[in-house]
């Protein structure tokens, strides 16, 4: 099928769900995969939380913890891919929950997802700032502090806003480049640490050594807390669904984008973590350093070469943040066009020049900066706090996102039990007879990991999430009841338009 005919088919499919084709549909299968792969970004999550994982779980968290989390996340990704194929709209989680449950389920799913998305954008760009600021400080001769990190964080967010505003074609090309760039930097890390380390590598079984923790927790509990490193890395792969209205042949390409982004991240991430961990000279010294990853790389490679590798990793984080802003803004746009947010008409507005949800993009930037700013103010008032800003931001994003991932999966199982959702409603990408058991295991893991992510020392993330949920309850009465009618109430396509597309396809 030629591209123009495929675009007509895609337009017709979207119109059958009641939405007009407003966003530019120009992304291919690789671009759709690349945006999720870039947001997962093994060079962001696994790297920025390397010290967290090592401190709590020791070297074994890199071998066993990464693998354990990845296998469960693959099941969750498969469950979500199946839903993306069945209901291919940019609202994704929110629209799935609305169709499978009702508009209240959809509304809460959207807002919980928004909370997680704010956390993930803030967490990714703050990670980038944590790496960039010390490198910039060494270059320009200033002292890196929490204040300078916050300033660099703001600049990074600003750049991501500008690039996303300019257009989807540029961002799609950068995402394509980012995917290859991530693989290339991992290859550089693997080769350089395997062959050019200043000291000999640890034996391979060191990667699976359990029982060692540099925290005050019993090892079993510490290991679970250390799973935040891997669990946060494997977030954001719903981006392939949020950009589904910009993807050609979306019912096949977007599901594969969701699933393969997790699978490839698992493999390349394991390779990277393996060589970095085997390059550790002194685990206790690395765990006690202000940045464990920088400490290990500097000791292993040193000098200009080590600094160059760290700059390469920092740029990968920048690409990750760029993709995350794209995904978040599309989700916000889709929710706003159904009047799910206050002042929705602004956030659903498409730039005539760039065909992007420009105002939604800038709201994403403001909200993400605000989350980190609030944490900065709290820590300024109480400087003796033991948690890190990054652990706070990442825990908020993990629980928010995975709760939002779990709701439509649960609603699908419930709809199947009621006979509402049938095999004929599935898209071309589906799990067949494995669907229900995979869905159920996915929900068990989501429930388990959501509890683990907010136990001390991450209890502040729990307080933040509780506060946000209370705000949602207030909004339920102040906004939802009077303004939100659900996605079905704002369908924008007439029968005449569908007939016109049918005639074009027949001609």
TrEMBL record:
GO molecular function annotations of the record: transmembrane transporter activity
UniProt cross-references to Pfam families, sorted A to Z: AA_permease_2
Keyword Transmembrane: yes
Superkingdom in the source lineage: Bacteria
GO cellular component entries: membrane
Transmembrane feature ranges: 33-51, 63-84, 105-127, 147-167, 179-199, 219-237, 258-280, 300-322, 360-378, 390-411, 461-480
UniProt-annotated location(s): Membrane
Keywords: Membrane, Transmembrane, Transmembrane helix, Transport
Record's bilayer topology term: Multi-pass membrane protein
Name of the protein: Amino acid transporter
């Amino acid at each position: 099928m030629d591209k123009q005919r495929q675009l007509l088919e895609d337009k017709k499919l979207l119109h059958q769900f009641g939405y007009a084709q407003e966003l530019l549909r120009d992304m291919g299968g690789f671009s759709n995969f690349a945006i999720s792969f870039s947001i997962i970004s093994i060079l962001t999550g696994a790297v920025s939380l390397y010290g967290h994982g090592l401190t709590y779980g020791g070297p074994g968290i890199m071998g066993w913890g990464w693998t354990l989390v990845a296998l469960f996340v693959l099941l969750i990704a498969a469950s979500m891919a199946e839903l993306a194929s069945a209901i291919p709209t940019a609202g994704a989680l929110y629209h799935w929950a609305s169709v499978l449950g009702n508009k209240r389920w959809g509304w809460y799913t959207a807002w919980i997802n928004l909370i997680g998305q704010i956390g993930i954008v803030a967490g990714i760009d703050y990670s980038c700032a944590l790496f960039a600021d010390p490198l910039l400080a060494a270059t320009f001769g200033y002292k890196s502090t929490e204040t300078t990190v916050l300033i660099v964080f703001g600049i990074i967010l600003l750049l991501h806003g500008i690039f996303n505003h300019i257009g989807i074609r540029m961002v799609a090309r950068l995402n394509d480049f980012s995917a290859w760039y991530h693989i290339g930097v991992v290859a550089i890390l693997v080769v350089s640490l395997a062959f050019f380390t200043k000291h000999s590598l640890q034996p391979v079984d060191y990667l699976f050594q359990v029982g060692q923790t540099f925290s005050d927790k019993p090892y079993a509990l510490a290991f679970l807390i250390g799973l935040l490193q891997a669990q946060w890395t494997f977030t954001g792969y719903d981006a392939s669904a949020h950009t589904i209205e910009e993807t050609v042949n979306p019912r096949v390409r977007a599901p594969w984008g969701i699933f393969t982004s997790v699978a490839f991240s698992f493999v390349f991430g394991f390779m990277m973590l393996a060589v970095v961990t085997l390059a550790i000279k002194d685990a206790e010294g690395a765990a006690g350093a202000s940045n464990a990853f920088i400490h290990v790389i500097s000791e292993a490679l040193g000098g200009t070469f080590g600094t160059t590798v760290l700059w390469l990793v920092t740029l990968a984080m920048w690409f990750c943040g760029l993709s995350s802003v794209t995904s978040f803004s599309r989700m916000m746009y889709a929710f706003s066009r159904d009047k799910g947010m206050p002042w929705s008409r602004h956030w659903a507005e498409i730039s005539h020049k760039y065909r992007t949800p420009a105002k939604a993009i800038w709201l994403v930037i403001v909200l993400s900066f605000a989350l980190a700013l609030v944490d900065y103010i709290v820590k300024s008032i109480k400087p003796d706090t033991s948690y890190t800003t990054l652990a706070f931001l990442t825990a908020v994003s993990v629980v928010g996102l995975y709760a939002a991932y779990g709701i439509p999966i649960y609603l699908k199982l419930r709809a199947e039990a009621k006979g509402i959702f049938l095999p004929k409603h599935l898209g071309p990408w589906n799990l067949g007879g494995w669907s229900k058991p995979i869905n159920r295991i996915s929900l068990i893991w989501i429930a388990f990991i959501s509890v683990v992510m907010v136990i001390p020392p991450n209890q502040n993330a729990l307080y933040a999430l509780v506060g946000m949920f209370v705000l949602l309850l207030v909004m339920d009465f102040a906004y939802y009841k009077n303004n939100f009618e659900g996605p079905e109430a704002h369908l924008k396509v007439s029968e005449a338009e569908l007939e016109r597309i049918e005639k074009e396809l027949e001609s």
